[in-house]
Amino acid sequence: MSSAPPIVTPPQPPLDLSIPHRLHVVGVGGPGMSAVAIALAEMGHRVSGSDLRDHPVLERVRAAQVDVRIGHDRTLVHGVDAVTASTAIPARNIELDEARLTGVDVLTRAGMLASICAQADSVAVAGTHGKTTTTSMLMLVLAQAGLRPSFIVGGDVTDVGTGAQWTAGRWLVVEADESDGTHLELPLYGTVLTNVEVDHLDHYGSFDGIIAGFDRYLAQIDGPKVVCGDDPVCVALAARHGGLTYGLSEQCDVRAVDIVPTTGAFTFGVEHRGVDGVHRRIGEISLPLRGRHNVANATGVVAMAMELGVEFDDIRSALSRFGGVARRFDIRGVDADATFVDDYAHLPTEIAAVLAAARGSGDGWDRLVAVFQPNRYNRIAEMWHEYADAFTDADLVVLTDVYASGTVPIPGVTGKLIVNAVTEAHPEQRVVWLPRRDDLVSFLATEVRDGDVCISMGCGDIATLPGEVLDARRR
Questions:
Q1: Which domains does the chain possess?
Q2: Neighbours of 205 (CB within 10 A)
């Protein structure tokens, strides 16, 4: 990284959404595309969407007056002004092909999201981990302050039951995804940057490429830049771009102190560094979430909300009632005295944070059973060895095979690579390798005991595992 930040021209949105349009969303059942479709419809545009199969989320999309069709058809793009699709949709998709043949504008999800962001003062949350939870907390804080924020989040916010809403207010709170460079295309007023770690090497090529992307991202934002001071890469980026730091570390501008876990929650104080360099207490927070990483996320929300002029009482009130986000330490059921939890964690740092959250939550669980489904062959090929120390807080580790998520199998790349990494680094740890789903369900149904917590993690079909195990236990 050079000593001077790059000179970057702010991105220009490809579509003017201040005037009514007829728009079509391909793959509208995906979490990112469904949120975009809902926002576009609530902005007043005529929106249609298509997907190969029905999804539960499509009921909310239909409720927003989006014309949803199951199956793809070339005629669906006739008469529309623009078509959008995520990078997960193949370029050969017949609707995208028909749009190109008939001269209809084809926008990536990033391009459409950028066009939405241009219609408000947009504040984004970016980073490798914690984006969805932090975005959701920030949105609820601004709502508590009466600012009526619109929002587009990568998961359903428990408190409002949806991942998107357009209010036509001044502010839009948006999750900025770096996986395909979306964050670099958004015209933004300000940002929270949670952390910068290794992921998506298929897009960036190297960790240096990831850092350069976030460097450029911060350079094109003129408003507040609230950056995690617990992450060394973020600290360097904050220094280059005049960022306000937050976190648990002593050197942070806004920091959490006196952190005390209770059952499934934390209380902590917040201190702010004044112009004289002295930290002063500004108040106390009660946060109904597990995990010190969520204390850090909440502290970032405090810092950004204060930058936007929100009173601390509103911040405290909103955070004390935060109901969480789907698939973030989501307790799916309790059978006898065994608890089953689902979580989206799929990177080593995320897994370690979730397990540490369970270990230090104050819930008093006797044994922690960690179940992990690796995701994407290309990711595991690059990163398998980095999972070696991710499960140290678990009493039992159960590993499955790789969930493809649209990636092509690579010879020799299976979940067994992670089994080998963990057992080599921690030979005393009990690790079980169960690539077949039936074996996985039957093993957990009998292995998990009263007083245990079983946490299944990953971003594939592992999400349904707690229900499957609970059903098997009750037969």
A1: 22-108 (3.40.50.720), 120-320 (3.40.1190.10), 330-474 (3.90.190.20)
A2: 10
Distance, in Å, from the CA atom of 256 to the CA atom of 244, rounded to the nearest integer, reads 14
Q: How many CB atoms lie within 10 A of CB 123?
A: 30
Distance CA 366, CA 381 (A): 34
Alpha-carbon distance of 348 to 370, in angstroms, equals 13
Q: What is the pLDDT of residues 98-155, one digit of tens each?
A: 999 999 999 999 999 999 999 999 999 999 988 999 999 999 999 999 999 999 987 6
Q: DSSP string of 66-102?
A: -EEEES--GGGGTT-SEEEE-TTS-TT-HHHHHHHHT
Enzyme catalytic residues: 131-132, 175
Per-position b or e across 441-461, b if 16+ CB within 10 A of its CB:
bebbbebbeeebbbbbbbbbe
Which of 294, 296, 124, 270 minimizes the C-alpha distance to 193?
A: 124
Pick from 418, 370, 420: nearest CA to 396: 370
Per residue in 403-430, is it b (16+ CB within 10 Å) or e — as a string? bebebeeeeebbbbbbbebbbeebeeee
